[in-house]
Amino acid sequence: MDPVILNILDSFNCVRLEEIDREKLMDRIDTKYLLPANRVPDLLNLMKGRYRALEISTQRISSYSTIYFDTHDFTFFNQHVTERTGRFKVRFRTYNSTGNTFLEIKKKTRKGRTVKWRIENSPAGNSFNETAREFIQTRAAFDPGSLNPVLENHFTRMTFTGFDTPERITLDLDLSFRSPEGKSAELPMVAILELKSQGVVARSPFSGLIKQFSVYPTPFSKYCTGCAILYDLPLKSILKPIILLLNRIENEYNKSLSA
């Protein structure tokens, strides 16, 4: 991790996990932004004093590992890229800072909100145990037997919360993907920011801060992007604007390194 980022992050007031868990935001509005990774220090300097950084066991940067499940014909991927309401994601996510693994189900509602359910659970090989199967059938009304692991990702995350606003901001770096067949890809040049809020996004102080970088909301999905990069899927062309944006960010990032 960039020592400049570490130094700035250490200057933030901190918030503990048990405190941030009081605002789980399991029913929320998600707004995502993509920023060249080299601009992260500038953004953190603007956020300092307005937000607190999550600290777990003296660490303010956590690593995550995720395994996504889908059908053989990528039903969830197709639903997402065609912006179907009521779409789902099913994943196991390991929070490496605590060692906990959860089975998580996310649903996008007709009102554009994200609802998330989770239980502490771990993969049973390439399948699910009985508890996990019941959870999937109850929350997603989907046959767990039709789901298989299709994508794994890894990234590091910083999490911030407002002093007096019910919102949370995550900042993800060092994103990488891997398929079960061994294909892989990395996106070290991009920072993925997500504002998780209960109300109108425009009222968030963060919305004003990020606009100073000429960065605006982007419908970015780690899952869909990873699938589009690693698989030859019929609907991947829908994500062409996102891929082009990633290419522009990579060019800007590389220019900054050679300047």
Describe the structure.
The structure is a single chain. With 259 residues, the protein is of the alpha+beta class. The protein has one domain (3-258): Hypothetical Protein Pfu-838710-001 (Beta Barrel), CATH 2.40.320. It has helices spanning 3-10, 17-20, 40-47, 75-81, 130-140, 205-211, 222-230, 240-258; strands at residues 14-16, 27-36, 51-55, 62-70, 88-95, 100-108, 114-120, 148-162, 167-178, 184-187, 190-197. It has an 8-stranded antiparallel barrel with strand order 2-7-6-5-4-8-9-11, surrounded by 4 helices. Strand 6 (100-108) and strand 7 (114-120) form a beta hairpin. Helix 1 (3-10) runs parallel beside helix 3. The longest helix has 19 residues, at 240-258. It is globular. The two termini are 21 Å apart. 30% of the residues are buried. The mean pLDDT is 90.
Search tags:
globular; 259 residues; 8-stranded antiparallel β-barrel; 8 helices; Hypothetical Protein Pfu-838710-001
User: What's the CATH first level?
Assistant: Mainly Beta
Query: What is the CATH superfamily classification?
Result: Hypothetical Protein Pfu-838710-001
Q: How many domains would you count in the coordinates?
A: 1
Task: Assign the structural class, choosing from mainly alpha, mainly beta, alpha/beta, alpha+beta, or little secondary structure.
Answer: alpha+beta
Q: Please, what is the average pLDDT?
A: 90
Total E-strand runs: 11
Structure annotation, total helices? 8
Q: Give the biggest sheet.
A: 8 strands, antiparallel, barrel
Shape: globular
Q: Alpha-carbon distance between the termini?
A: 21 Å
Beta strand %: 25-35%
CATH fold descriptor:
Hypothetical Protein Pfu-838710-001
Q: What low-confidence regions span 5 or more consecutive residues with pLDDT below 50?
A: none
Strand order of the largest sheet: 2-7-6-5-4-8-9-11
N to C succession of SSEs: HEHEHEEHEEEHEEEEHHH
Identify the CATH architecture: Beta Barrel
| Helix content range | 25-40%
Rounded radius of gyration (Å): 18 Å
